[in-house]
């Protein structure tokens, strides 16, 4: 977004927030946009004074356990102590799942993910439940990552994406279409490495209009004509961003899975409206 708005990806201020403070901080104007693992739900979108403007990662809740427990499924966690973070959808999902399965468990509820990681590392709980991407990150911080496994069970849908305050349609558009632009760039085969050549030679007129800067869309949002070009050139397309931060070029080494492009092989759910 900083690259799209200012032409400079470093013109941004990151504000760390506890999970139960994140939406209040956005409503109060302490931050302009919330980019983190916030799940798009009906109640949040309709009664919090907030707008979810896209999905940048399809996640789901799972369980991290010690390999020594020899567990194959979350259904074997009967009587287990499970660390979970408060103020998130995770706590409610956990209760719903075990109630539906008639499985007893002891929730160990803490305020932050760091606390949950710490308790799990000290064996103060038998399992740690969170979004699978967060569990993969937590595993890399343990002294012996290879001795911990993420169970195959996925107990929820967690569509994660950027959130803004209600009441500013122009800002909604900027956030939404910056995300869409990097998604579309990957679909078009345009990356930070080839964008200059592609906008000269591409047969895809959508790509030329979006990245070539001759469409007038930037001006309609109050941005420079090269807003989408700047985002892709300076930061990369969706796939490059994914690989660098959580994919094959990162310590997490997560597969694309559901976050592959809709026309990929195999296909995923990542999809953006057309640039027309």
UniProtKB/TrEMBL annotation:
The lineage of its organism: Bacteria, Pseudomonadati, Pseudomonadota, Alphaproteobacteria, Caulobacterales. SUPFAM superfamilies: Periplasmic binding protein-like II. It comes from the Bacteria. Keywords: Signal, Transport. Residues 1-198 form the Solute-binding protein family 3/N-terminal domain. Belongs to the bacterial solute-binding protein 3 family. InterPro entries: Bact_solute-bind_prot3, Solute-binding_3/MltF_N. This is Amino acid ABC transporter substrate-binding protein. GO terms for biological process: amino acid transport.
């Amino acid at each position: 977004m900083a690259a799209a708005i200012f032409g400079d990806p470093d013109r941004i201020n990151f504000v760390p927030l506890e999970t139960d403070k994140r939406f209040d901080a956005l409503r109060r104007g302490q931050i302009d946009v919330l980019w983190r693992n916030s799940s798009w739900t009906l109640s949040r979108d309709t009664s919090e004074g907030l707008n979810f403007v896209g999905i940048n990662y399809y996640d789901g809740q799972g369980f991290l356990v010690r390999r020594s427990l020899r567990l194959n499924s979350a259904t074997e966690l009967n009587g287990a102590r499970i660390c979970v973070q408060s103020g998130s959808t995770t706590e409610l999902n956990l209760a719903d799942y075990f109630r539906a399965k008639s499985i007893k468990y002891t929730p160990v509820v803490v305020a932050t993910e760091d606390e949950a990681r710490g308790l799990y590392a000290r064996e103060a709980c038998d399992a740690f439940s969170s979004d699978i991407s967060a569990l993969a990150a937590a595993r890399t911080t343990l002294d012996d990552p290879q001795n911990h496994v993420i169970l195959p069970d996925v107990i929820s849908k967690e569509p994660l994406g950027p959130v803004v305050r209600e009441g500013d349609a122009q800002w909604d558009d900027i956030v939404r279409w910056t995300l869409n632009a990097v998604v579309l760039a990957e679909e078009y085969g345009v990356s930070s490495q080839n964008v200059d050549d592609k906008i000269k030679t591409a047969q895809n007129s959508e790509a030329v209009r979006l990245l070539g800067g001759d469409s007038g869309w930037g001006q309609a949002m109050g941005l420079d004509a090269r807003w989408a070009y700047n985002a892709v050139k300076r930061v990369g397309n969706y796939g490059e961003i994914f690989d660098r931060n959580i994919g094959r070029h990162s310590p997490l080494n997560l597969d694309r899975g559901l976050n592959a492009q809709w026309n990929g092989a195999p296909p995923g759910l990542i999809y953006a409206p057309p640039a027309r």
